[in-house]
Design brief:
By secondary structure, the protein is mostly helical. The protein has 2 helices and no strands. The longest helix has 39 residues. Essential subunit of the Sec protein translocation channel SecYEG. Clamps together the 2 halves of SecY. May contact the channel plug during translocation.
């Protein structure tokens, strides 16, 4: 039981005193970057999907 108490105490000390936490403004900037990059990626994948769908639909209708 003593090992568990020591582990919890050391973990709490590490989280509160030894970890460098990012500032809120940095987190907001990173979140916006991820949101924008994900949106662009989704649009590109959607465009590729639409192009393949249109091309295959045309191909199947022609033959």
């Amino acid at each position: 039981m003593e090992k568990i108490k020591t582990y919890i105490a050391e973990s709490w000390d590490e989280i509160t005193n030894k970890v460098t936490w990012s500032k809120y403004s940095e987190l907001q900037g990173s979140a916006m970057l991820v949101l924008i990059a994900s949106s662009i990626f989704a649009l590109v994948i959607g465009a590729i999907d639409w192009i393949f769908k249109s091309g295959l639909t045309w191909f199947y209708n022609e033959f």
